[in-house]
């Protein structure tokens, strides 16, 4: 009887190998050859699941974003109190622990690659639109002033969080031991105090 292969599981395994290689050595470390070797597949086997490195990278990017969403949901239902819900969301996108520092390494490598890849660039732009929209909803609710999500003060604060998060994720690459975590936590505290005022 022929062996039944779970192709979706194989794709997930390949994506996990690509993530591990990117965390350890950056985007350049995730070559087709290194992925095949680390995954333990024959050279031609990878093409059955991903026709190109770009297709692996796109799947890796989507997987990293999905994992971030899963981790937010694993924290339980969103708090009913708007300020607490906003804090949880802001903390989720800051590199405040080893998992999020590793996720930053993956996402930043993929963002850089997306500059020259239209499909990845559109995935990233879509992610940014979704991220900005959710932040604006949470900020408007936390401010409690009845502002629409597209009010200038709300969109400016959403942009600030995005820019601060991306900056924190970039700087944490130089301090993978978490040395900047206290600084990033202090930013979140300052931001939340401003929202509450």
Q: How does this structure look, described?
A:
This protein has a domain at 60-196: Tetracycline Repressor, domain 2, CATH 1.10.357.10. The chain starts with 6 loop residues before the first helix and ends with a helix. 74% of the residues lie in helices and 0% in strands. With 197 residues, it is mostly helical. The longest helix is centred in the middle third of the chain and has 26 residues, at 118-143. α4 runs parallel beside α7 (118-143). The model has no long low-confidence stretch (mean pLDDT 86). It contains 9 helices and no strands. The protein has helices at residues 7-25, 32-39, 45-49, 53-74, 82-92, 98-114, 118-143, 152-172, 181-196.
For the record, give the distance between the C-alpha atoms at the N and C termini, rounded to a whole number. 68 Å
Write the element-wise H/E pattern from the N-terminal end onward.
HHHHHHHHH
Assign a percent range to the helix content. over 70%
Task: Name the average pLDDT.
Answer: 86
- Class per helix and strand makeup: mainly alpha
CATH topology of the domain at 60-196: Tetracycline Repressor, domain 2
